[in-house]
Amino acid sequence: MRTVQADEPQLRPLSARSVVLSLLLGTHPPEMPVKDLVRMVEPFGVGGSTLRAALSRMTAAGDLRRTDAGYRIGDRLLERQRRQDEAVEPSTRAWGGDWEMAVITATGRGPAERAELRARLTALRLAELREGVWLRPANLRRSLPGELETVLRSFTTRPEQPAQDLVPVLWPLDTWAGTAHALLGHIARVDRPADRFTAFAAVVRHLLLDPVLPEELLPADWPGPPLRAAYADYQREFTHTVREHRA
After folding, report:
1. How many domains does the chain have?
2. Same domain assignment for residues 241 and 181
3. pTM for the full model?
4. Fewer C-beta within 10 Å: the chain N or C terminus?
5. Alpha helix segments (H runs only) across 42-110
6. What DSSP character marks residue 105?
């Protein structure tokens, strides 16, 4: 694999909504009292009135729900937290050469339904070989959600094309690795709490895009493990900070 220059990554600024969601999605259980949220968002320049407005909008939208203790992420975001946790510690198994294949069989779906299905299959770390045919090495300890059985059929297969030739057709590994190296370089250079929080929010988003391929199909300098280790260290640091704020 070619050497990728670790340039400064383009990090998007976090809105009040993004800060609140990132705080709660990184907390177990995903709930905080309002007073803790007020203290935690201050380093991002989010004032009390802005926070209250964001909490109100997010509750109305179903992103959050009010509890006796404060605010908790809504039920539909619990799956997002599960995927985020799994991105840091994916459950894998030894790979024997088999591949998962999902073939979309449903017809007559509108653009929104097709886009939603594509997003779900991508979140399951499948990649589209051609329209309606998705696959990946069968090295993940998981099954496809039962509700998808109405729109697709799944198989275990062994493609005739060598795996080493098929992988680059399905995933832009150089691009993913380049961004990962840039993020690793960036988090090593920043030390302000708000900057680190913003950087690690980007790390989580990037880990969700890691195909989590078998080691034998990855380049020798694949940055997935060090990026996961860096985030795991930060998560422990973040948990300690939250506990200090609650003390």
Report:
1. 3
2. yes
3. 0.85
4. C
5. 48-61, 75-88
6. -
Q: Are 55 and 74 in contact (CB under 8 A)?
A: no
* Phi, psi values for residue 161, rounded to 5°: -70, 135
In terms of Cα–Cα distance, which of 124, 97, 30, 100 is closest to 69?
Answer: 30
The kind and range of the H/E element at 236 are helix 224-246
In sequence order, what are the beta bridge partners of 136?
100
Domain that holds residue 130: 99-157
Paired strand residues for 96: none
Per residue in 77-125, pLDDT (tens digit) is 998 888 888 888 899 999 999 999 999 998 878 899 999 999 999 999 9
| Distance between CA atoms of residues 232 and 228, nearest Å | 6
Report residue 98: phi and psi, to 5°. -75, 155
Q: CB count, 10 Å around CB of 104?
A: 19
Calculate the alpha carbon distances from 244 to 125, 136, 175, 240 in Å: 36, 43, 38, 6
The CATH number that applies at residue 183 is 1.20.58.1460
Q: Please, is 208 exposed, middle or buried when counting C-beta atoms within 10 Å of its C-beta (0-12, 13-18, 19+)?
A: middle
Q: Which two structure tokens, joined as six digits, stand for 247?
A: 């003390």
Please state, in angstroms and rounded to a whole number, the distance separating the CA atoms of residues 71 and 55. Answer: 8
Please list, in sequence order, all residues whose beta carbon lies within 8 angstroms of the beta carbon of residue 146, skipping any fewer than 6 positions away: none
Sheet order of strands, 31-32 included = 31-32, 71-73, 64-66
- H-run or E-run covering 37: helix 34-41
SS3 43: helix
What digits encode the pLDDT tens for the residues 200-210? 999 999 999 99
Cα distance between residue 194 and residue 115, in whole Å: 34
Mapped onto helix, strand or coil, the DSSP state of residue 82 is helix
